[in-house]
């Protein structure tokens, strides 16, 4: 049996011409219900007119 992680992170890394690296991290969770990978939900990003949002497998089809 595989053990489950207690938290899930998504990270964006930005490279510049200088040696400085900036990154940001946030949990992966549904924009509607707040459920995430830690709850056993599948998460998918969807581009909307006002930007990108993450949805669980339940709410993705409703958008």
Classify the helix fraction into a percent range. Answer: under 10%
- Given as residue ranges, the uncertain stretches (5+ residues, pLDDT < 50) are none
- Report the strand count: 4
Structural class: mainly beta
As a percent range, the share of strand residues is 35-45%
| H/E element order | EEEEH
Terminal CA distance: 34 Å
Mean pLDDT, rounded to whole units? 82
What's the Cα radius of gyration? 15 Å
The total of helices stands at 1
Inertia-based shape: flat
Q: Output the strand order for the largest sheet.
A: 1-2
Biggest sheet features: 2 strands, antiparallel
Describe the protein's architecture and organization.
- The protein has 63 residues and is mainly beta.
- It is 6% helix and 38% strand.
- The strands form 2 sheets. The chain has a two-stranded antiparallel ribbon. Strands 3-4 form a two-stranded antiparallel ribbon.
- Strand 3 (43-48) and strand 4 (51-56) form a beta hairpin.
- The protein is flat, with a radius of gyration of 15 Å.
- The chain starts with 9 loop residues before the first strand and ends with a helix.
- The mean pLDDT is 82.
Topology:
Layout: E1 10-15, E2 21-26, E3 43-48, E4 51-56, H1 57-60
Antiparallel strand pairs: 1-2, 3-4
């Amino acid at each position: 049996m595989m053990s489950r992680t207690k938290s899930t992170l998504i990270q964006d890394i930005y490279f510049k011409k200088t040696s400085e690296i900036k990154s940001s991290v946030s949990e992966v969770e549904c924009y509607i219900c707040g459920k995430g990978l830690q709850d056993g939900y599948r998460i998918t990003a969807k581009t909307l007119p006002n930007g990108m949002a993450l949805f669980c497998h339940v709410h993705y089809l409703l958008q």
